[in-house]
């Protein structure tokens, strides 16, 4: 049995971790009004060690949110504006030829903006597929390879990409392989009337909103480790398996689903659900996820990992509504 001393040490660690994450939430909220769900899901993405795709119209403070998280979590962060003429070397970096005073020549690697702990890929779908693919190895492996040489990226390393769902002219849809690299797809809605009123007052006067630093170097890694070791009950694990497998047309027992879903989520979707559910529970001051946590991260974890058939789209079905239906069937109404 665990001794009283070990119990006291564990409780002290839990209390310390919860105090740190409360400080992070307060630090981010100092720069962002409203959007509590978006903030929670974005913080959950970082705490789970993943990457996030923020989807929303212009002017909804997506860039400001990334900056606020970088400040609150004390991360070295940078922004890359994706455009049609952006090249992979503009992101990763490139080798240049140096000549010494004695005439000797050698290649030297100049690091690109991806060598940051937090990278904002702004309007990622405006770049060509070739440039988008430059992020694949970085997001999955935490390293990049240039001219046969592999370079490790800073740790922690996170990508928060943005995408405008309104203006699609001159854009390139993200390939399924890259979408799967994002732990969560986070929809950023328009603010409620009262929140928008507060935004107008806060951003058009003398005083400006600003984020506050809440973590010291190394403390984010400690929080991420805490989330990783959080226990997951057998009931939660089975519920995640039931949900993910029910969304695959080749695995489901519902013959109607095969007519609706062109392709379903792979094993990485289940990993995303568990990681995000644990991080969300931690943000709520709990040390183990519940079915409610799984339910609330289901849409962000599954919608970008599924595709509807042409027939389903023609009938007006939306992927989010289908995910909600699958959640109700697999987990029960919450």
**CATH superfamily grouping of the domain at 229-334:** Magnesium chelatase subunit I, C-Terminal domain
Number of strands: 11
Number of helices: 14
Q: Class of the domain at 229-334 in CATH?
A: Mainly Alpha
Strand order of the largest sheet: 2-5-8-1-9
The profile of the biggest β sheet is: 5 strands, parallel
What structural class do you assign from the helix and strand content?
A: alpha/beta
InterPro entries: AAA+_ATPase (IPR003593), ATPase_AAA-3 (IPR011703), CbbQ/NirQ/NorQ/GpvN (IPR050764), ChlI/MoxR_AAA_lid (IPR041628), P-loop_NTPase (IPR027417)
Organism: Candidatus Phycosocius spiralis
Protein name: ATPase
Pfam family, one: AAA_lid_2
List the helices and strands and how they pair.
Elements: H1 4-29, H2 36-47, E1 52-55, H3 62-72, E2 77-81, H4 88-92, E3 93-99, E4 105-111, E5 118-122, H5 129-132, H6 134-141, E6 143-146, E7 149-152, E8 158-163, H7 176-179, E9 184-187, H8 193-203, H9 219-228, H10 234-246, E10 261-263, H11 267-283, H12 291-302, E11 307-308, H13 310-314, H14 319-331
Parallel strand pairs: 1-8, 1-9, 2-5, 5-8
Antiparallel strand pairs: 3-4, 6-7, 10-11
